Structure formats: structure tokens, C-alpha cells
């Protein structure tokens, strides 16, 4: 499976001085959550890790190779991403959209095999959208489209999963189901690295956290060591009340 490391990485955010260099090691089996307020660079970081955005300094290594030197098809076999915002370039059904995930593994002009179709169907089933397989994606609700996007990534089957707000638009049941699916993928040997706005989802489901502060500072490590009220209050500029529920900390904004 695929691991990712960054060496003295500084993401490039226009108008902001250089932040703290990131020296991360994201290993197979881990679930990372990236936390921070709006505009701090969470999405820019994901795009940089995926090779879609040039860093200001440092480098990103995927499977011990520089991301910037990898061909896109090779990169897509190791890394996949769910974006925060998506545009439907052409009409496609839910099943056709999920099958796009198989393209990195196919030769030019090759048709999808029965095995490819089964992978897509299994992913749609896992994300509870198999009943929508023949619907056009642009006719779906925001939450349904989000689950189709995650199913497409699951069909792609990369070693490293990058997700920008994977629970965006999802109702409570599907938030829990999706986070459970992502941790299940990590347990199967994949690496999961995602930006989250919901602190409590991160606290419950992530085993590693990266905290990005507005001034460019950052800290990262095992989730238990990062879930310190004082650090989180500084991160969000908000007083928090901490309680425990179902064996995990729950953070509630103080009045």
C-alpha cells in the first residue's frame, strides 16, 4: 500500500508569509484529520499533496517518489481525491460516474470489464447509492452526489485517499456510515487523509490529527495528544466545554 511523506513542505497561500514547514509521514492503516478555521489552507494542502498545486518550498513523496515527477495515470493508481466542489462536465449516470474510477487502470480505448463493473457496483452499495445507479448525477441531491464521489474514489482503489470535507452535505446517518467506511478502508491497509470542519467527527474517527493555525503555525501527531482543549481553543478562537460520551471526548462551544 501507499504511504506519503512531506519534507520541509510549505504550502503556497497568496498574501500570507511562509508558514511552518510540514514534515509529515502518512502511513498505510492511518486515518488523518486536518483541522483549522476557514482560509487557513486545508484545501490548498490537499491540492499540494495531490500534485495539483505547487508548494512554496519542500517536496511531497508518494511511494518514495516525488509527486511532481509522476505521470498522472501512475499517480492516480496510488492517490485519489474527493474534492470539496465538483462540476459535472457532461451528463452521466451514477454507475458511469463510478466507473470513471477505473480509468487509471485501463489502456487507452479499453472498455470496462465485468470485474470493473462489479467493483463499481460494490462501491455504490457501500455508499448506499446503488438504487440510484441509472440516475443522472446532476439530478441528485448534494448528499447523494457526495456519496457518489466517494464511491468513485472507492472504485479507483488507490493506496492513499485524500478527501476534502467528505461529510459535506451528508445527514447524520450517512456521516457516521461514511466515517466508518473510511476507517474500514484504513484497516484494510489504505491511508486516509482528510480535511474536516467537525471537530467531534475528527475526535471520534481519526487516529492522527494535523492542526493548522491562522498564523501559519502547525502541530501534528497522534489524535490523543492533539485533542487538548487549550490547543483547540487557540485553533478556533473559541472557548470549548469538554464532556465524554461513548468513550470519546465531545467538544461543545461555550456560550
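Sequence proposed for the structure above (255 residues):
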Amino acid at each position: 500500500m501507499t504511504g506519503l511523506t512531506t519534507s520541509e513542505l510549505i504550502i503556497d497561500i497568496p498574501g500570507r508569509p511562509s508558514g511552518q514547514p510540514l514534515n509529515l509521514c502518512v502511513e498505510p492503516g492511518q486515518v488523518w484529520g486536518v483541522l483549522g478555521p476557514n482560509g487557513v489552507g486545508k484545501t490548498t494542502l490537499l491540492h499540494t499533496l495531490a500534485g495539483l498545486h505547487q508548494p512554496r518550498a519542500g517536496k511531497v513523496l508518494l511511494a518514495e517518489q516525488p509527486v511532481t515527477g509522476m505521470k498522472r495515470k501512475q499517480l492516480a493508481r496510488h492517490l485519489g481525491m474527493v474534492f470539496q466542489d465538483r462540476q459535472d462536465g457532461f451528463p452521466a449516470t451514477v454507475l458511469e460516474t463510478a466507473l470513471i474510477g477505473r480509468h487509471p487502470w485501463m489502456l487507452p480505448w479499453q472498455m470496462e470489464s465485468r470485474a470493473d463493473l462489479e467493483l463499481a457496483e460494490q462501491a455504490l452499495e457501500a455508499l448506499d447509492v446503488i438504487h440510484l445507479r441509472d440516475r443522472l448525477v446532476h439530478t441528485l441531491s448534494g448528499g447523494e452526489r457526495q456519496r457518489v464521489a466517494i464511491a468513485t474514489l472507492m472504485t479507483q482503489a488507490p493506496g492513499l485517499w485524500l478527501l476534502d470535507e467528505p461529510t459535506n452535505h451528508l445527514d447524520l446517518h450517512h456521516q457516521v456510515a461514511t466515517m466508518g467506511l473510511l476507517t474500514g478502508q484504513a484497516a484494510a491497509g489504505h491511508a486516509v487523509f482528510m480535511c474536516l470542519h467537525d471537530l467531534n467527527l475528527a475526535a471520534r474517527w481519526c487516529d492522527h490529527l494535523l492542526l493548522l493555525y491562522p498564523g501559519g503555525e502547525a502541530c501534528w501527531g497522534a489524535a490523543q495528544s492533539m485533542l487538548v482543549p487549550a490547543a483547540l481553543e487557540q485553533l478556533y478562537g473559541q472557548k470549548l466545554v469538554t464532556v465524554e460520551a461513548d468513550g470519546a471526548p465531545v467538544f461543545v462551544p461555550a456560550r
